[in-house]
């Protein structure tokens, strides 16, 4: 990428929070080492703590960066913090506090000779977002002498109504072209490579349809449980937390038509078309699960019905996909952490090698796109084993990112760079959010879908097999 980064002020609201420490600071630190990012960016951490000042905040962030193992050179980190970091308390978040923030921003811009390009990253709990947007807007921080961009993290509402309210609240002050809604799955290298695979390799297009594809499975498996997130997870559950956003975004990239350009507008348009073509999902096509032991987790209700697992089948009513089942599956405490898209191609109609075998024994070719932990693409083909009589076995044609390119940047690095450049291609727009809630909101808290128990370390409740497919479980 060659676009030059313009000098800017990166304002993080929620600068003492987990997201800021785990993802934002390490990413910005790494980015700032690149030539493209250059010198002219300053970071202003904003949070409620009134006891902190620039100096004490810098010391804290220096510790965060060192802990993240980003550098062994403590002088270098310390110099970086000294030159780039400031802190401003937002106190109780009153109108006056936001006016104070606006004044501080102008002061810092003057001090560093910045032209007024501003990025506001809301690294805040979701219920704090509307007030923060209002505070920024009322303090006239929604516009500036340069560009102003607003970054919002998921969840984007809890259902259709709350998502519409949230969008309306943000649009009161910010234009859609200023808003960057982050779905961090879209920053993963292989997710973007999926588009390259599909649209830069002409042969793929000929096979990418109902004539040649039997089914598509998207699995995002996590080996961990909910860790310390009980409070937000209890309210969310697997459909809201993962399916409505991450897995649906992946589905859109698999299913969409060729966009007219690799540009935000064209890609958003194609994704929206897919969302509009997905047929209503029947509750019978959904299996929910909860790992045993969930109700005993800290701060979880002993009667909790929150699903930690969801698997579902859906259909897309388009010329390309009609009749091809798409299966989405995600869960916590599954056997391993792995995100995969498995495209199963139609089987050979007749087995000339084993004529007596039933059709079901003929294996499909599988295209397996692994997003994590080891990004890459594997294509399963049938080959002949050595010797007679002839017998077939499955082997893989493989491309693995790490082998070809070494270590990959974190998804946040990629997304932050795009925000600073002003490229909305990998960000989710308001209409996609609403279209996606239209698909799933009736499945959340629906009493006609029982929540089945499953043992941690298994692939989820047995009932998921009733949805029809042979599930392709990732192997270690
Ligand atoms: C988040 C979910 O959006 O994604 C978490 O809220 C989940 O529940 C996480 O653990 C998974 O992200 P990744 O990148 O680790 O697969």
DSSP E strands, number: 15
Distance between the termini: 34 Å
Radius of gyration: 24 Å
Bound molecules: 6-O-phosphono-beta-D-glucopyranose
Largest sheet: 9 strands, mixed
Structural class: alpha/beta
Contiguous low-pLDDT stretches (5 residues minimum) are none
Structural overview:
- The protein is of the alpha/beta class and 476 residues long.
- The chain contains 13 helices and 15 strands.
- It has helices at residues 18-32, 54-67, 74-84, 95-112, 129-138, 160-171, 189-200, 202-207, 230-255, 264-277, 401-405, 411-421, 430-440, and strands spanning 8-13, 41-47, 85-89, 118-122, 148-153, 179-182, 213-221, 286-291, 309-314, 326-331, 338-345, 366-372, 376-384, 392-400, 451-454.
- Strands 14-13-12-11-7-10-9-8-15 form a nine-stranded mixed beta sheet. Strands 3-2-1-4-5-6 form a six-stranded parallel beta sheet, with helices on both faces.
- Helix 9 packs across helix 10.
- The model has no long low-confidence stretch (mean pLDDT 93).
- The protein binds 6-O-phosphono-beta-D-glucopyranose.
- Residues 184, 222, 241 line the site of 6-O-phosphono-beta-D-glucopyranose.
């Amino acid at each position: 990428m060659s676009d030059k980064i313009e000098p800017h002020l990166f304002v993080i609201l929620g600068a003492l929070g987990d997201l800021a420490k785990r993802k934002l600071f390490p990413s910005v630190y790494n980015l700032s080492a690149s030539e493209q990012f250059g010198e002219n960016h300053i970071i202003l951490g904003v949070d409620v703590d009134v006891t902190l000042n620039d100096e004490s905040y810098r010391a804290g962030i220096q510790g965060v960066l060192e802990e993240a193992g980003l550098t062994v050179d403590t002088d270098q980190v310390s110099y970086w913090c000294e030159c780039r970091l400031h802190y401003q308390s937002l106190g109780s978040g009153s109108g006056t506090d936001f006016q104070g923030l606006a004044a501080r921003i102008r002061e810092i811009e003057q001090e560093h000779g910045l032209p007024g390009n501003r990025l506001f990253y809301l690294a805040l709990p979701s219920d704090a977002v509307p007030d923060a947007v209002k505070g920024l807007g009322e303090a006239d921080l929604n516009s500036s002498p340069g560009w102003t961009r607003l970054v919002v993290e998921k969840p984007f509402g809890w259902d259709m109504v709350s998502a519409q309210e949230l969008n309306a609240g943000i649009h009161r002050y910010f234009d859609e072209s200023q808003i960057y809604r982050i779905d961090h799955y879209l920053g993963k290298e292989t997710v973007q490579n999926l588009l390259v695979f599909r649209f830069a390799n002409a042969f793929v297009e000929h096979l990418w349809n109902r004539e040649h594809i039997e089914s598509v499975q998207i699995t995002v498996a996590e080996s961990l449980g909910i860790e310390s997130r009980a409070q937000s997870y209890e309210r969310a559950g697997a459909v809201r937390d993962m399916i409505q956003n991450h897995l649906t975004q992946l589905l859109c990239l698999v299913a969409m038509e060729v966009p007219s350009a690799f540009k935000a507008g064209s890609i958003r348009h194609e994704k929206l078309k897919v969302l509009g073509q997905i047929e209503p999902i029947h509750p019978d096509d959904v299996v929910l699960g909860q790992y045993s032991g969930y109700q005993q987790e800290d701060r979880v209700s002993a009667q909790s019905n929150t699903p930690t697992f969801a698997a579902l089948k859906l259909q897309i009513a388009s010329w390309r996909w009609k009749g091809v089942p798409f299966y989405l599956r995600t869960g916590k405490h599954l056997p391993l952490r792995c995100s995969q898209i498995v495209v199963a191609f139609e089987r050979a109609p007749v087995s000339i090698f084993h004529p007596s075998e039933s059709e079901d024994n003929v294996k499909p070719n599988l295209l397996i796109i692994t997003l994590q932990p080891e990004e890459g693409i594997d294509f399963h083909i049938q080959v002949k084993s050595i010797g007679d009589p002839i017998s077939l076995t499955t082997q893989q044609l493989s491309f693995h990112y790490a082998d070809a390119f070494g270590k990959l940047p974190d998804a946040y690095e990629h997304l932050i760079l795009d925000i600073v450049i002003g490229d909305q291609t990998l960000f989710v727009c308001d209409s996609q959010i609403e279209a996606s809630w239209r698909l799933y909101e009736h499945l959340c808290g629906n009493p006609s879908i029982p929540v089945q128990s499953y043992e941690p370390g298994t692939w989820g409740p047995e009932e998921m097999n009733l949805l029809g497919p042979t599930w392709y479980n990732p192997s270690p």
